[in-house]
Every structure is written in C-alpha cells, then in structure tokens.
Amino acid sequence: MAGDLLDSQGRGEAQWGLPAIHPEGRKFGIAALGISLLFAFFAWETLAWPMAFLSLGILAFFRDPERVVPQDENAIVSPADGRIVQIAEVAPPRELIADDGTGSACLTDEPVVRVSIFMSVTDVHINRTPIAGMVQRLVYVPGQFLNAELDKASDENERQHILIQRSDGLCVGFTQIAGLIARRIVPFVKPGDTLGVGQRVGLIRFGSRVDVYLPKNTGSKVVLGQKVVAGETIIAELGTQPLLEGVSQ
C-alpha cells in the first residue's frame, strides 16, 4: 500500500496488514523474548511468561503502521497519535524564534495557537511532520521528566524542537516532549533534510507529548479530548479559525 494514491471518491485499494515494527524497537523486543526463552529453558515459568508478554508489549509499542496522508497544501496534519489535552494561544519557544544566523525569521514571538497531543503507552509513538518542507532547525533541550499532560512540561521537560519551512516561507514548529516514563527522544531527520507531509521524523520512548505551533491566523480544527492520528488527522487549515464544539458521549 505504501505510495498508493487513494481518494475521497473511492479510487485506490485499501488493504489491511500487520504493522511493521520499527528497527529502534526490535532489539528491545528480541532481548526480552530471549530472556523469556532462557527462563523457559530453566523451567522458571513464573518468570518466563511475564517476560514473553513483555516482549509482545514492547513490539506493539514500536509498531509503525502505514498512514494515508492528505495531499492538501492548506492542511496541517497531526504529528502524533494521541489525545488533544491542551489548546492555547502562546508564544513559540525561544529555541524556534531565536536568531540562528541564517537571517530567516521564520517564527516570531507573537502568540499563536498551540495544540498539545498526549501519547499514552498504547499509542503509536512514531512522529510525523505536519507539513512538507525543509527541516530548518532541530534543537534538543535536556530537562526534567514531569507528567507530560502538565502545562509546564512544555518548558521544563526534556524536549526536542523541530522547525519545518515550506518553499513559500511558511513555517510550522513542533516539539517532542519526554514524559514520566519516556527517557529518550530519537530523531530520524537532521537540519537541511527535505520532507514530505506526514513523513516520519522521530519517536519518543514510552509515553510523551507533542506540541504543535500553528501559523499566525490559523486555528485548531480539533477539540479537547479528541483522538488524533499522526499523518492522517487534519488539525488545522491555513488561514482559518473555526469554532468547533464537541460533546463527550
């Protein structure tokens, strides 16, 4: 299915298949499975079975399913699977707006809408770019490991900022934030890389959060509590500021 073109009129072919396991997780899953087999060899069943289930859990955590990415220049897609936990108007992080010597002031300190997505341990943890463009910045910041659902996690937790700039100058910044259990942010890209919308950019191990800073005069198309899918859910459309309401039921 990878690379296939599908549309809203039913053209294309949708197929189901088991998701791939990202290489970053295979070593952990195989190690846990090996320990389980070692315990089984010595007839330590009380230890072998929990390790076997742990290996399956690890492989499931690092699953990397294919996604059908909307091809719309006005669409900003979700960079993460998870639940919308905050929507607020704030200034972008200084790491995304500070002068880096390039002479390109992609983002300013003017407040914009920030959409925060919390990923639990059951969500897919492969993150994707919300727009197509070039990786202008990738800035790692060491920090704490507070609950990623807290507002102050954006400023105090270990995090990695990514700034994507389109050929027309439009920029979208987003931040991968480590949480209580997460202990490593793994990038797949580097500054200067050119990406397509929805392309994989990295992962965060074992529960975390991603903040997206929407362009000026652009509002959220998702509501608090909504579940979103990385690379598929459209979280905003450029230049629109819709008021949407949701009912929990």
UniProtKB/TrEMBL annotation:
Cofactor comment in the record?
Binds 1 pyruvoyl group covalently per subunit.
Q: Which UniProt keywords apply?
A: Cell membrane, Decarboxylase, Lipid biosynthesis, Lipid metabolism, Lyase, Membrane, Phospholipid biosynthesis, Phospholipid metabolism, Pyruvate, Transmembrane, Transmembrane helix, Zymogen
One term of GO molecular function: phosphatidylserine decarboxylase activity
Q: How does it sit in the membrane?
A: Peripheral membrane protein
Post-translational modification here is noted as: Is synthesized initially as an inactive proenzyme. Formation of the active enzyme involves a self-maturation process in which the active site pyruvoyl group is generated from an internal serine residue via an autocatalytic post-translational modification. Two non-identical subunits are generated from the proenzyme in this reaction, and the pyruvate is formed at the N-terminus of the alpha chain, which is derived from the carboxyl end of the proenzyme.
Biochemical pathway: Phospholipid metabolism; phosphatidylethanolamine biosynthesis; phosphatidylethanolamine from CDP-diacylglycerol: step 2/2
Cofactor(s), names only, from the UniProt record? pyruvate
**Modification Pyruvic acid (Ser), positions:** S208
Query: Annotated site (Cleavage (non-hydrolytic)), which positions?
Result: G207, S208
EC number, as in UniProt: 4.1.1.65
- Per the record, what are the reactions this protein catalyses? a 1,2-diacyl-sn-glycero-3-phospho-L-serine + H(+) = a 1,2-diacyl-sn-glycero-3-phosphoethanolamine + CO2
The membrane-spanning stretches of this chain are 28-61
List of catalytic residues: S208
Cellular location(s)? Cell membrane
Principal location class: membrane
User: What is this protein's function per UniProt?
Assistant: Catalyzes the formation of phosphatidylethanolamine (PtdEtn) from phosphatidylserine (PtdSer).
Instruction: Describe its partners and assembly state.
Output: Heterodimer of a large membrane-associated beta subunit and a small pyruvoyl-containing alpha subunit.
Protein family membership: Belongs to the phosphatidylserine decarboxylase family. PSD-A subfamily.
Record protein name field: Phosphatidylserine decarboxylase proenzyme
Q: Which organism is it from?
A: Qipengyuania psychrotolerans
Which classification does the entry list for the species? Bacteria, Pseudomonadati, Pseudomonadota, Alphaproteobacteria, Sphingomonadales
